[in-house]
């Protein structure tokens, strides 16, 4: 099977295929820092999260958060996060997984305690409610230059986001976000932007969680693949790693070194994929 054409274009050359400021920023950072690694910082205090982010920042293009799991959330955290994102050059992705009707998600995105749209460059949503979820989030996020990812597949065992669901999620984006100004890609395990459905010059980012160099899974259904399997074999653009990095045992330097090990593995797989031409 011939490789998906997008996987043969260097990240830097894909910048011109996007108009969304967040998509452009992500690809620019990946190109500049030579990294396709996103670190998921799923710890339960904001102070611990900041420690991890400072250690991994130099190796990543993106930091992913779940701010609803922090016991000590305040906007001092988001201010510090935005500051670090500028200093250490990464994009902020709040993994909120919105899943409601358009009106509700627009409120959840802009309001409440977290006010996600005010500080997070990128967020994500399930396609299960239908296209209204894209319109509701776009109303808030597009004027701010934010980006959205739709969950087209999941890494967990028994996921229902497969086959027809995945295909319909991709088609929903094509039909709803006509100028591709807000939805910049997908959370998926494979290159789900089907060749026969993408027009020349159309570009989507595929981000894959469920990545581990030594772990194979957990007791709650998570399944891991290696950076090589994700980037080279499945054609993903960005690997998302959580426990494989912040959960590593050892001193402060261990987390930093582990992030660098994943960065190198992800980048090597990307270079091999380009050289396959
Ligand atoms: O399908 C998915 C989608 C996501 S966003 N599977 C996932 O695991 N995630 C998220 O990626 C999950 O919520 C968690 O924050 C991270 C994976 O963490 P890890 O510790 O298993 O690497």
Instruction: List how many beta strands DSSP finds.
Output: 8
Strand order of the largest sheet: 1-2-3-4-5-6-7-8
Q: Which blocks of ≥5 consecutive residues have pLDDT under 50? A: none
Helix content: 25-40%
By CATH, the topology is TIM Barrel
Share in β-strands? 5-15%
Order of helices and strands: HHEHEHEHEHEHEEHEHH
**Distinct bound molecules:** 6-sulfanyluridine-5'-phosphate
Rounded to an integer in angstroms, the radius of gyration calculated over CA atoms is 17 Å
Q: Calculate the terminal CA-CA distance, rounded to whole Å.
A: 13 Å
CATH superfamily: Aldolase class I
So, CATH architecture? Alpha-Beta Barrel
Shape: globular
What is the mean pLDDT? Answer: 96
User: Into how many domains do the coordinates divide?
Assistant: 1
Produce the secondary structure layout.
Elements: H1 11-14, H2 21-33, E1 37-40, H3 46-56, E2 62-65, H4 75-87, E3 91-98, H5 102-110, E4 122-126, H6 132-141, E5 147-151, H7 163-176, E6 183-187, E7 205-208, H8 227-233, E8 238-241, H9 243-246, H10 252-275
Parallel strand pairs: 1-2, 1-8, 2-3, 3-4, 4-5, 5-6, 6-7, 7-8
The site of 6-sulfanyluridine-5'-phosphate (S5P) has 16 residues, from strand 8 and helix 9.
Please give a quick description of this structure.
The protein has 277 residues and is α/β, with parallel strands linked by helices. The chain has helices at residues 11-14, 21-33, 46-56, 75-87, 102-110, 132-141, 163-176, 227-233, 243-246, 252-275; strands spanning 37-40, 62-65, 91-98, 122-126, 147-151, 183-187, 205-208, 238-241.
């Amino acid at each position: 099977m011939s490789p998906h054409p997008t996987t043969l274009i260097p990240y830097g050359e894909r910048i011109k295929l996007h108009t969304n400021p967040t998509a452009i920023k992500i690809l620019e950072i990946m190109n500049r820092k030579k990294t396709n690694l996103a670190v998921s910082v799923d710890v339960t205090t904001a102070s611990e999260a900041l420690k991890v982010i400072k250690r991994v920042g130099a190796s990543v293009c993106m930091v992913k958060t779940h701010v609803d799991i922090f016991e000590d959330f305040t906007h001092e955290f988001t201010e510090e996060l935005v500051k670090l994102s500028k200093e250490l050059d990464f994009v902020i992705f709040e993994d909120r997984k919105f899943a409601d009707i358009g009106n509700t998600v627009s409120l959840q995105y802009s309001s409440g305690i977290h006010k996600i749209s005010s500080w997070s460059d990128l967020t994500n949503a399930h396609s299960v409610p239908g296209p209204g979820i894209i319109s509701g989030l776009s109303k808030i996020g597009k004027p701010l230059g934010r980006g959205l990812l739709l969950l087209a597949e999941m890494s967990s065992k028994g996921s229902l986001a497969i086959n027809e669901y995945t295909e319909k999620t991709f088609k929903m984006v094509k039909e709803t976000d006509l100028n591709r100004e807000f939805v910049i890609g997908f959370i998926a395990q494979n290159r789900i932007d089907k060749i026969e459905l993408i027009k020349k010059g159309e570009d989507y980012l595929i981000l894959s969680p469920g990545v581990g160099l030594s772990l194979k899974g957990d007791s709650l259904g998570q399944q891991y693949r290696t950076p090589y399997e994700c980037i080279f074999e499945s054609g993903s653009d960005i690997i998302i790693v959580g426990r494989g990095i912040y959960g590593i045992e050892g001193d402060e330097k261990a987390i930093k070194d582990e992030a660098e090990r994943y960065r190198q593995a992800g980048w090597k797989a990307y270079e091999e994929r380009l050289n396959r031409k």
